[in-house]
Amino acid sequence: MAWSVALACASAGEPDKVFGPGLVPDPAAATSMARGLYPAATLVETGDTVLDFALWPYEDELFVGAYDRAVLLCDRRLFCLDDDARRIADTAAAALPGANCGVLVLHSVISGCWFRWYEAGELRRDVFVTAEDGVVVDQGERMPAELPFWKAIDEGAPDVPLPFDPEEFGLALAEEHMFGRRIAERGPDGFLPMELPLRRFKLC
After folding, report:
1. How do 43-50 and 197-203 pair as beta strands?
2. Quick check: 73 and 92 in contact, CB under 8 A?
3. Within the chain, how many helices (H) and strands (E) appear?
4. Burial group, residue 147, by CB count within 10 angstroms (0-12, 13-18, 19+)
5. CA 41, 43, 49, 55: dihedral to nearest 10 degrees?
6. CB under 8 Å to 130, separation ≥6 — which residues?
7. Can you give the pTM of this predicted structure?
8. What is d(CA 90, CA 95) in angstroms, rounded to the nearest whole number?
9. Other CB atoms closer than 10 Å to residue 113's CB: what's the count?
10. Which of 48, 93, 151, 187 has the fewest Cβ atoms within 10 Å of its own Cβ atom?
11. Nearest-CA neighbor of 117 among 6, 20, 33, 10?
12. Which distant-in-sequence residues (6+ apart) come within 8 Å of 141 by Cβ?
């Protein structure tokens, strides 16, 4: 499966404990976060949907899920990997006091992965890899879920072309550090991350 994803996910607590059955969205908090991200824009609330639909929004859309101990944000502007993308990522990371936050951007055509990791609002890891260009950014201490992917490069293999699949790399990080489970698989508890409810906004 080819994935296109522009997602920030913050959780106050271990993700496998935060994400599970019975997670109740807070529409008012979602609206407040959306307006804080784009104070100069006219935001029109256009209903509710689920993460499966929201992972790769249209350019004039924004999806926000706010819960008791978690925040999800889907915004294609993250794909630009520019100052605005970093602003959006930083804002999501600071949405919950003391929370950890992962930002995952995948693009099926470019075959690349951008991942940022924050702990209590502080950026700890920033990595960007593409199949064609290899390792573009590799800053901060590598996370446990990454280590098997880096083995060949650490042993002297060239990074161009990249010796691992960027999509598999990003999904492994999401599983281990963002959701505590596979994003597209229903767990024994019946919970499926793709069914998480989010609020949909149009930017005018």
Report:
1. antiparallel
2. yes
3. 6, 9
4. exposed
5. 0
6. 110, 111, 112, 113, 136, 162, 166
7. 0.95
8. 9
9. 27
10. 151
11. 10
12. 124, 125
- Sequential pLDDT tens for the chain (204 residues): 589 999 999 999 999 999 999 899 999 999 999 999 999 989 999 999 999 999 999 999 999 999 999 999 999 999 999 999 999 999 999 999 999 999 999 998 889 999 999 999 999 999 999 999 999 999 999 999 999 999 999 999 999 999 999 999 999 999 999 999 999 999 899 999 999 999 999 998
Helices (H), 109-177: 147-154, 166-173
Nearest to 179 by CA among 65, 80, 77, 78: 65
- With both helix axes pointing from N to C terminus, report the angle between 166-173 and 147-154 in degrees, rounded to the nearest 10: 140
Scanning the structure block, which residue is given the tokens 């999509």? 167
